[in-house]
Please model this.
Amino acid sequence: MSWQLHRVDDRLIHGQLVIAWGHVYHPQRIVVVDDASAENEWERDLLASAAPDAEVRVRTVAEAAREYAAEAGAGGGAFLLVPDLATALALVEAGAAVPRFNLGGLHYAPGKDKINDYIYLDAADRRAARALIERGVALEVQDVPASRAQSLTALDPLIATA
Amino acid sequence: MARVPALLVTHADLGAALLRAVAQVYGPADGVEVLSNEGLSRPALEQEIARRVDGWPAGGLVLTDFFGGSCHTCVQSVARHRDVAIVTGVNLPTLLDYLHNRDQYAVWDLAERLQKKGQESIRLQRGQNV
Model:
């Protein structure tokens, strides 16, 4: 069974993921793909403490790409989390055959345009999104399971020309 | 004993609503700061928390809504190198107890008191047909 959700969320493990998505899918494992967190023991422990009901693995992009196919065939369900679109693209370019990413939270920072209340993108984000789409990866905007999933390209026409 | 300052970090406008409720049963909660995570990335929320906590001369309390949420995670990151005690699961009785006791306790002793108060504040009662 394995992969149940691939999510782009700059908050990584937090309430929406554990409470909303977690109560729908009950993942046994949560794989956080973030080079900076993977190299920081304190950050790894912090992420693990935020999801007490799942095994939390914090991986570099390279490690996650290597382990991706084996995890896809593992028993029980799993979530994969990346903090931004650049990491999502790097993971796919490193060989992980991710079919779609759920965009759950890319919050405001200077220079980013508002797409909706929880998605803000700049030119670099749009280029990464376009590259993912060109590789056949679907990008869907949806914060919690109870809300409607929307295609990112439908919400942001600028991605087509990024 | 110096007053223990407090910051309330919650989802949406829960913190502000709690303070409005407090104002009705206690009066204005002077000195309690409120911060929502709404629209903020992790670094931005951590920065906002740090900015407030760094204004405290001798540490203080940060109250968050639930363990493991982004509010709590960000508070943990900020508190790691600061004189801050974290209390999760804040509710109205906890907040009222804080206001009644913030001048009588040291930071950690007050945090322990609030944990006990919060846990004791949830009670069960049967209606006639339950």
Summary: The CA atoms of residues 2 and 73 of chain A lie 6 Å apart. The two ends of chain A are 35 Å apart (CA to CA).
